[in-house]
Amino acid sequence: MFEKDKIYIRKELHGKYGGNRRSGISKSSKYNIIMLFYGNKGKKYGYEDGWKNGIFYYCGEGQIGDMEFKKGNKAIRDHLKDGYELHLFENMSNGKVKYVGQFVCIGYEFKENYDIEGNLRKMIIFKLIPYEKYVKEAV
Fold first, then answer.
1. Residues 36, 102, 90: CA angle, nearest 5 degrees
2. Share of the chain above pLDDT 90, in %
3. How far apart are CA 49 and CA 52, in angstroms?
4. Which helix (DSSP H) or strand (DSSP E) does residue 95 occupy?
5. What integer is the mean pLDDT of 74-100?
6. What is the pLDDT of residues 96-117, one digit of tens each?
7. What is the mean pLDDT of residues 83-97?
8. Are 77 and 108 in contact (CB under 8 A)?
9. What three-state secondary structure class fits 75?
10. Which of 20, 29, 120, 22 is nearest to 67 (CA)?
11. Which of 29, 50, 95, 113 could disulfide-link 46, Cβ–Cβ 3.0 to 4.6 Å?
């Protein structure tokens, strides 16, 4: 479906697979996939996505108030049960994204941080591992 490290045009991905063109969590309206997008711009909204000890920590969606398990956050949490694949993309520049790979959500944790209005809030941080590692550990 996607090729690792390949650069894609985000607008073209949405044209083919559907999903929310603005959100970091984009559930396809045509296929059983959820596209996750991350990059440096999210830091100004309190998002700190990245690798730590073989796990990719991905911040849930919601810029104001506590994050809740609805919409994209619910989709990530329930993706295995609902039969959806998670595909991670890194935002580059000029609408380009680099495909990182297919991932599996193995859990989540909560973290306190400030929202865009400066209020302390609860954030959902998803723990993602590469699909290959998930399959290997399941055997």
1. 40
2. 73
3. 10
4. none
5. 96
6. 999 999 999 999 999 998 888 8
7. 96
8. yes
9. helix
10. 120
11. 113
